[in-house]
């Protein structure tokens, strides 16, 4: 027995210092939303902010809002807010583009700082866009640069005199396993390589200390734990010590030292703004800023503590109620090694997740057989873990995954 009965869980919810944040999100009654690691819930304040941005700033202010509403400084202003969540300084983070595009920027910038080296290194099973960007850059280089991926437990051993860049995700997208950022960065630097961290499953979910770890570059998305909305703009971190020497390959007009001088020749801005490209997506940045402001109001230590406790409760309840039903835990059980989602493998994973959605539990599925359950402390309750597990057991007992509607996987899983 896990010891987690409903009364015990309700008592934890009653004493939860973060309980008040739940009401700041728009969630329908009865829904247990376990997919905030893929798309965060809608903060209620975002509705008013977007209405203001659309009807007043755009509708009334029109072009004057670039200055009057400070649109022009939004990428830097919001980037500085994200920096506080990442252990970075003002002027080291900028909001721009997508994670994929920012990966391209970071990788090529790092390569420009290690011109004598030829290898971009990562691990097999990393998030696909990380690997795809590496492969695309290698192909475009005409053979001068190689993209290489090795097994995760071998990646540090592969560091050598030919490795220019090590690209890793701090929290693995599928398993939730956490890498030791400080140790990995130290090992890479000892080998003469620069490190790029993908923080897409870290920011707003676990404590991050980029400067404490000596990180070189980092990227991440705004639509997961930062609750910035679907397709929210991403962000890029460049350590201040690298900014003046890193050469922007995507040399867009907003990254120019004086964009409105309209010069023919490109001159890179001196600071983090050199990593901007085109006109910032103001509506997306406005929504993202609401999500970041909301996260900033929470105590990160309390958020992480609740996340870990919710994860432990979920795993304990799965052990109690779903033992012998075909589940295999693929996330680390140890707190220090686990991010803010818990994943299980099951041979009927895809159909099971679809059946759960019809029963008011939304998680997601990752090929070939992994069910991911996001643990988002700002709007999840301890009792939600029990309700979710009981519905998982019901799906198993009734073999609800056998529904012929799920014989073919949808475009989004």
In DSSP terms (H or I, runs of 4 or more residues), the helix count works out at 14
CATH architecture of the largest domain, please?
A: 3-Layer(aba) Sandwich
Return the average pLDDT rounded to an integer. 96
Strand order in space, largest sheet: 4-10-9-8-7-5-6
List the uncertain runs.
none
| Structural class based on helices, strands and sheet pairing | alpha/beta
Number of strands: 15
What letter string, H or E per element, gives the SSE order? HEEEHHHEHEHEHEHEHEEHHHEEHEEEH
Q: What portion of residues belong to β-strands?
A: 5-15%
CATH class of the largest domain: Alpha Beta
What is the assembly state of the chains in this entry? single chain
Radius of gyration: 22 Å
Under CATH, the homologous superfamily of the largest domain reads Type I PLP-dependent aspartate aminotransferase-like (Major domain)
Enzyme class: hydrolase
Protein name: Kynureninase
GO molecular function: kynureninase activity; pyridoxal phosphate binding
Keywords: Hydrolase, Pyridine nucleotide biosynthesis, Pyridoxal phosphate
